[in-house]
Write the structure tokens for this entry.
Amino acid sequence: MTTVNIYEAKTHLSELLQRVSEGEEVIIARNGTPLARLVPLTPAIARRPGGWETLWIASDFDSADAEIAAMLLDEKR
């Protein structure tokens, strides 16, 4: 982790961003007091439609026990 003052950060922003893109963290300070932290963004996970092609549902999925159904529906037993 590198700490730089604001003036240095403004002067060398492109270089600091390159270092951050390579995984380094940079602290930006004012008179030695940390103010901000530059960190690399985590890449978004590519999602594709149809990811549940192999979804399995039990054959008795819709047949609930009467006691369980009553609890779920908050009915009196």
The helical segments are 6-11, 13-21, 66-73. The chain has a mean pLDDT of 85. The first strand starts at residue 2 and ends at 5.
